[in-house]
């Protein structure tokens, strides 16, 4: 049943793409991007944001670059790695795509890695955030973030700003463990103490007992990582348990206060301090234009996942420009290395060594601006590389 | 590193007990309909969670989109799930009463998948919340024990329902008809009891309870299109551990599992998610027919 739905969606997207081109381009004039995203299931908000951002980018910049027409083929993997792999295989073998892109969660990005290596085509990771991903194939490039980037910085910041005792609550899978380990390393190196460490199951229905344990441990703050989408539920129960009134602050990478959901979290979230790559309140003209266009098109606020998608498709366009439309995968990935541009999140670049993103990390506090909740940036760490690579 | 002392304080124990009872009560309301169909009517209905989800979504649409007060929407969650239940019972389920358990499992699991896809299509796949009145939010302290208002409401509603249910089954004419119809359908119909009607009504009532449970659980368990699949295991655990021959069995099983789950996550967070399964295995080794199961007499 799910399979059928995916196919029909892909068929619809393909049909729309076909209709849009009234004079259908010849095969060799088309560049195909296989987009694999979770459009159903718990991570669907990630998929939706990235799809929206890519559509928006292509509306703004046109669908032709370096004389080639860009065609997007969307497949839903529901964030299940087996399905990711099947989808990637179909896209590469049957559709003969020139890029695979998307990947809502780390296991999905890893599942596709060997296929990218074999087929020698670039895999553009637009969401998943574990450090090891780019090491799994020389064809992987990332436009989202790594958890090491934000977690190390919030660890340094916390210890310098009067937070001495921290309890941690992280989702028990690779990105959660990355976030926890990098935070702990930097926080304790600065003299902080982790008094309580709880890993919650990824598909966790109820945070209550874990939060009660946090409350009874009486730390200065809780360090939280839950995947984008679960933040709303976490903050709700945090407030219900009265942890905000007990003076226990929330700190962490910015996933917990994702712009996508932030405005519905209620006032308990006020004062939460996070380190992250993107805030919808980022005060640049480019971001203001991006927000305005996105809101106009989709009537909702974009979050950091949307920005990852927007920059991902930009990188694909730029690589094609640089190769003059040559779709050789090895040339494309070479063209992507060292690219630098201005994104809605601020200045970013692709590290030529690791193919991972280099970006500013901002420290933000949740405040009310014009009656809406926003992550307001108040400190910037420039050009942060990923610190989590195993090969040093 | 772990500060053990405060965790064993009286207030911590009581807070956990309170949360556990609330969680258990919720499990009971969600699962007791299944105990009735499985235990009394001997029908394996794996689509039970779909009725809970239907109730939850009805409540969400009424409260969030149409501005109904939460307490007015709760009865509607019950009624709508019961109505769907009765419609499906009359059109589909009753043809399967005499079929093998495998047929019943295949049919109801198919129904579950259809409900997941349908809700996903209509409402989208992201998790929904029901807007609660301010009176139900937050906690208040009773001698240092944090009492969540919403959880307190769950305990009150579910407690009253349980008492009511037990009374109906034990004391009323309908209750005795139902028990008669279950024990020996042929003799019961010979005595003039309309057995199919009794079953249909019971089935609908169980679905209604699930619908109410679904509406209540949106806040705590989370409501999304995958609800019937995610919690199917929990319902089955309640019924297997409790035994399916009475209401008391699943009730006590729910409380035990609720408290065990909450306490397990609190005291041994590393093991937290496994506690509920460990308890099930231990209990079933000890009593293979569940805590209050009938021995293989049937």
Please, could you describe this protein's structure?
The complex is a heterodimer of chains A (392) and B (298). Chain A has helices spanning 2-20, 44-61, 81-93, 106-119, 147-160, 174-189, 208-217, 231-240, 259-262, 285-298, 304-322, 329-336; strands at 30-37, 64-65, 68-76, 99-102, 123-125, 140-142, 165-171, 193-200, 221-225, 249-253, 273-276, 340-343, 346-350, 357-369, 372-384. Chain A has 392 residues and is of the alpha/beta class. In chain A, the strands form 2 sheets. In chain A, strands 7, 8, 9, 10, 11, 12, 13, 14 and 15 form a 9-stranded mixed β-sheet that branches. Chain A has a 6-stranded mixed β-sheet with strand order 2-3-1-4-5-6, with helices on both faces. The longest helix of chain A has 19 residues, at 2-20. Chain B is mainly α and 298 residues long. The longest helix of chain B is centred in the N-terminal third of the chain and has 31 residues, at 10-40. Helices cover 69% and strands 3% of the residues of chain B. Chain B has helices spanning 10-40, 48-65, 70-91, 101-123, 149-171, 173-183, 185-190, 195-217, 227-242, 248-267, 275-286; strands spanning 139-142, 145-148. A two-stranded antiparallel ribbon of chain B has the order 1-2. In chain B, a hairpin with a 2-residue loop joins strand 1 (139-142) and strand 2 (145-148). The chains are: A alpha/beta (392), B mainly alpha (298).
């Amino acid at each position: 049943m799910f399979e059928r739905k995916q196919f029909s969606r892909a068929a619809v997207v393909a049909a729309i793409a076909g209709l849009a081109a009234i004079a259908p381009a010849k095969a060799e004039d088309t560049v195909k991007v296989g987009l694999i995203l979770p459009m159903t299931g718990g991570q669907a908000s990630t998929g939706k944001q990235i799809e929206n951002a890519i559509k928006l980018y292509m509306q703004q910049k046109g669908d032709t670059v370096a004389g080639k027409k860009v065609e997007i083929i969307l497949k839903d993997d529901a964030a299940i790695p087996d399905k990711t792999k099947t989808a990637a295989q179909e896209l590469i073998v049957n559709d003969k795509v020139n890029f695979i892109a998307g990947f809502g969660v780390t296991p999905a990005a890893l599942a596709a890695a060997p296929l990218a290596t074999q087929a020698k085509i670039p895999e553009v990771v637009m969401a998943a955030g574990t450090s090891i991903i780019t090491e799994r194939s020389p064809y992987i490039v990332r436009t989202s973030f790594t958890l090491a980037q934000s977690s190390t910085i919030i660890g340094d910041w916390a210890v310098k700003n009067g937070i001495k005792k921290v309890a941690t609550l992280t989702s028990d899978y690779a990105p959660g463990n990355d976030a926890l380990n990098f935070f702990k390393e930097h926080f304790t190196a600065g003299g902080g103490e982790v008094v309580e460490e709880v890993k919650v199951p990824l598909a966790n229905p109820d945070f209550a007992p874990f939060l009660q344990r946090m409350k009874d441990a009486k730390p200065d703050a809780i360090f939280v990582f839950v995947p984008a989408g679960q933040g709303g539920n976490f903050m709700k129960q945090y407030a219900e348990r009265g942890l905000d009134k007990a003076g226990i602050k929330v700190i962490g990478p910015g996933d917990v206060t994702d712009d996508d959901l932030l405005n519905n979290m209620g006032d308990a979230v006020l004062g939460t301090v996070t380190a992250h790559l993107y805030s919808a309140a980022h005060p640049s003209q480019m971001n203001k234009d991006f927000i305005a266009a996105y809101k106009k098109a989709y009537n909702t606020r974009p979050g950091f996942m949307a920005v990852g998608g927007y920059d991902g498709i930009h990188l694909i366009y730029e690589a094609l420009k640089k190769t003059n439309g040559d779709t050789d995968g090895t040339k494309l990935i070479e063209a992507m290395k060292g690219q630098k541009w201005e994104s809605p999140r601020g200045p970013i670049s692709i590290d030529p060594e690791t193919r991972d993103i280099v970006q500013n990390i901002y420290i933000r506090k949740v405040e009310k601006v014009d009656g809406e909740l926003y992550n307001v940036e108040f400190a910037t760490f420039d050009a942060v590389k990923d610190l989590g690579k195993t090969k040093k | 590193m772990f500060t053990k002392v405060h965790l064993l304080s009286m207030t911590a124990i009581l807070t956990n007990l309170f949360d556990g009872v609330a969680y258990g009560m919720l499990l009971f309301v969600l699962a007791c309909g299944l105990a009735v169909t499985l235990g009394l009517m001997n029908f394996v209905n794996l689509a039970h969670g779909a009725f809970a989800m239907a109730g939850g979504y009805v409540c969400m649409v009424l409260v969030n989109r149409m501005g109904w007060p939460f307490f007015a929407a709760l009865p509607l969650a019950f009624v709508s799930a019961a109505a769907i239940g009765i419609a499906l019972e009359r059109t589909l389920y009753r043809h399967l009463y005499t079929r093998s358990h495998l047929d019943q499992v295949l049919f109801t699991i198919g129904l579950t998948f259809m409900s997941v896809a349908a809700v996903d299509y209509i409402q989208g796949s992201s998790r929904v919340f029901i807007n609660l009145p301010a009176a139900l939010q937050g906690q208040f302290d009773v001698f240092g024990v944090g009492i969540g208002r919403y959880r307190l409401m769950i305990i009150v509603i579910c407690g009253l329902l349980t008492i009511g249910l037990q009374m109906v089954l034990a004391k009323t004419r309908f209750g005795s008809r139902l028990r008669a119809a279950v024990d020996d359908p042929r003799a019961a119909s010979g005595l003039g009891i309309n057995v199919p009607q009794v079953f249909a009504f019971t089935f609908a009532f169980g679905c209604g309870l699930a619908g109410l449970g679904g509406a209540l659980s949106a806040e705590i368990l989370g409501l999304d299109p995958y609800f019937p699949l995610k919690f199917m295991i929990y319902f089955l655990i309640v019924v297997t551990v409790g035994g399916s021959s009475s209401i008391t069995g699943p009730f006590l099983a729910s409380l035990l599992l609720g408290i065990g789950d909450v306490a397990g996550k609190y005291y041994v967070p590393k093991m937290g998610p496994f506690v509920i399964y460990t308890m099930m295995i231990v209990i079933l080794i000890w009593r293979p027919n569940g805590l209050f199961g009938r021995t293989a007499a049937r």
